[in-house]
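pinging the channel bc i need a second pair of eyes. not urgent but kinda urgent?? the chain im working w is below, pasted from the shared doc
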Amino acid sequence: MSMKKVVISLGHDALGITTGAQRDAVKITAKALADLVEEHYQLTITHGNGPQVSMIHKAMTELRRVYIDYTPAPMCVCSAMSQGYVGYDIQNALRSELLARGISKPVSTILTQVTVDPYDEAFYEPTKVIGRYMSRDDAEIEMKKGNYVKEDPDKGFRRVVAAPKPIDIVEIEAIRTLADAGQVVIACGGGGIPVIEQQHTLKGASAVIEKDAIAGKLAADLACDVLIILTGENYVYQNYGTDRQTAITSMNITEAKSAAAEGQFEAGTMLPKIEAAVSYLEKIKTGKVIITSMDKVKEAVNGETGTVITYD
């Protein structure tokens, strides 16, 4: 039986926010992913890393404060670290779950770099808050380095970095080779490690990439049949959070664009998912996007729940 190619994007609920919580969470996540493998879907998995990269950034910054011989880790290095340890937990939990079901299938993590434009407008207006709370003195030191900070009147200052749009996935051929061989691949974790191409050299950028944006690009680059975006809700909703809230079971990209223009989707949560769906479908017009919760993903791929977005 031929397998449908799927990119599935995991949200924070699938991973937890601490190392211990993550180990527990991925065991549950692995069951949902294994269900899809049993349904003959070839999976390429991507995931968020907000809490993880923030934790790593805090730890490396504090290490530098205590031991001055250590160099603070730049954001690109923190992103690479988060890809490694999140991928490690997912691949081991999924491998174990598959073997328990009698399925022998390689699961591997690809450390993935993604190029960004150094002139992307996001670098001029950073929005992503990361890392520890700082004193005013520490914040001033960061600003003297050319970094951006944001003040919370009750807690202090935090670092703010840019979220530029992804251009190219550097390791896409390696990802495609493994996916075409029927293996489960974990790639572009946390949006990928943002890098700027300078002739033949890739230089790490002080930024993060939206996981939903890279999920849409990854699905398009692999010409996947389905893009699955997991969130905390079973459906995308119209008039979300009001007494007129209504589940959207299906829409095409014209309807999705119209609803987005009307402000139906919150900028920091659902809107990036809708934008990723539109971006993917504009390139793969025969594709399908499913947005649902992890608990309902098996039912969603069988058409029983979730929001489905198509080109027409």
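so The two ends are 28 Å apart (CA to CA). and The chain is about 40% helix and 25% strand. — does that match what u expected or am i reading it wrong
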